[in-house]
Design a protein that fits this description.
By secondary structure, the protein is an all-alpha fold. Helices cover about 40% and strands about 0% of the residues.
């Protein structure tokens, strides 16, 4: 597999290796492009407890749980 094939398959652009766009003077553009990709990935990561719960499909409430599958775990807080 050639260098950059995975990036292309993932929909990312690669750094040109020839021509005007491949010159070192355009390196800052490529560095900024990588930072844009990092920012896109970071925006997919949930923030805070609520964000992680929502992303995992976990909800909370006062009603008894309904549905579920065999093997699901249910925790009930019992106050004394």
């Amino acid at each position: 597999m050639a260098v950059g094939d995975l990036a292309i398959a993932a929909g990312l652009s690669i750094v040109p290796d020839s021509g005007e766009e491949g010159k070192v003077k355009h390196g800052s553009r490529e560095l900024n492009r990588t930072r844009d990709y990092i920012a896109q990935v970071l925006s997919l990561i949930p923030i805070g407890r609520g964000g992680y719960r929502t992303a995992a499909g976990i909800s909370s409430g006062v009603d008894a749980p309904s549905g579920g599958l065999d093997g699901d775990i249910y925790f009930q807080i019992v106050s004394t």
